[in-house]
Design goal:
The chain is mainly alpha-helical. The chain is built from 5 helices and no strands. The protein has one domain. Helix 2 packs across helix 5 and helix 3 runs antiparallel to helix 5.
Length: 114
């Protein structure tokens, strides 16, 4: 189960770097497709075991991995002397990236529970 969380975190981080927030609304569809692939990868890593626990751990790891990319930028600006509010304003919260992460984690969870 821990391995599924690690896989979810790594894939969440990598895909949040690769998915541009420029495509806007279409990240919903892309998130569903990528989530299905992530669910399949985690299913193979866990030897085709399916459970609600694996789905929750994978989805949580994926969202944390995607959020880690945003939080890293905020911390870099805070180290430069900005406050948290100023750093978030400079980085601009990636709304579509978070929508993508949530849709992908839900699709991966659906793949791991059915």
């Amino acid at each position: 189960m821990i391995l599924s969380g690690g896989v979810g975190f790594a894939l969440g981080f990598v895909s949040s770097v690769l998915v541009p927030s420029i495509i806007g609304f279409f990240v919903i569809f892309l998130g569903a497709i990528v989530g299905g692939f992530i669910g399949e990868i985690v299913s193979r890593v866990s030897r085709r075991k399916r459970s609600l626990g694996i789905a929750i751990i994978t989805g949580s790891g994926f969202v944390l991995g995607a959020f880690f990319f945003f939080a890293r930028d905020v911390v870099e600006f805070m180290n430069a002397g900005l406050t948290i509010a100023e750093a978030i304003r400079v980085v601009r919260f990636p709304l579509w990236s978070m929508v993508y992460a949530i849709v992908a984690s839900l699709a991966a969870g659906a793949r791991l529970t059915w």
